[in-house]
Amino acid sequence: MPTKHVIAFKETASPLTSTSTKFGGQPNWVSEPQWPLSEETGNPMRFIGQIALAEVPGFATEAQVAYIFMTDEEDGEHVDGIWDPDSGENAVVLQPGDCDVDFEELAEGPTLFRLVQKEGQSRVSQEFCEFAVSLTPTEDVEYMSEGDRWKLPDVKQKAARGVLEESKIGGTPVFLQGDELPFEEGWQLLLQLDSGTAPFRVNFGDVGIGYAFMNSDGTEAKFLWQCG
């Protein structure tokens, strides 16, 4: 059985400076910064988090850290295709490794936030945040295509699908809207991120779920999300 590492988020009191797994804050680069740019606007994407690959056994890759980014709305302007792994509006940067998207050598840029109501203000405002993680390893289900699951008796279909509303590193993807593997031959699930239970705002549509994958040899990675 594959192993998943279920994420528990732990808010930090001060900025983290290591290359350990975290969400929000600013990326701690292994080498020179490679901040991806939106294909439509040319502006820096929003940093979602970094995954320290050596912290989780089983990944086939020479990369040490994967950095996940996505274009977000800018000044209320909608940017299309941010869910699509090939749209140029999200990116996973592996270091060491080759970066195949346009980038700038920025050490700091847009990052995760939550919406808070501050005293004396009528509107909510953004409050930037950063979270370390603790990881709990446990058995995951074997991957089974949606078509094959539909062939099972009703009582077995849910168990074969796995847990949908959880955030985890590694294991088996549990898709919200049907199979959507970004690599035709071979893949490794890097991250499944449930926006509905995350302690920060991330724009995956209506309570959506994000998925990051590496190819089979860990030289390329892609990100996508699905919503209800």
Percent in helix: under 10%
Strand order of the largest sheet: 6-5-4-2-10-1-11-12-13-14
Gyration radius, rounded: 17 Å
Strand elements, count: 14
CA-CA gap between termini: 28 Å
Question: Helix and strand layout, with pairings?
Answer:
Layout: E1 3-11, E2 22-24, E3 35-36, E4 46-52, E5 65-70, E6 90-95, E7 103-104, E8 113-116, E9 125-128, E10 130-139, H1 146-150, H2 154-161, E11 168-169, E12 188-194, E13 209-214, E14 221-226
Antiparallel strand pairs: 1-10, 1-11, 2-4, 2-10, 3-7, 4-5, 5-6, 8-9, 11-12, 12-13, 13-14
What's the gist of this structure?
With 228 residues, this protein is mostly beta strands. The chain has 2 helices and 14 strands.
Describe this structure in words.
The protein has 2 helices and 14 strands; from the N terminus they run ββββββββββααββββ. The protein is mostly beta strands and 228 residues long. A hairpin with an 8-residue loop joins β8 (113-116) and β9. The longest helix is centred in the C-terminal third of the chain and has 8 residues, at 154-161. It is globular and about 55 Å long. It starts with a strand and ends with a strand.
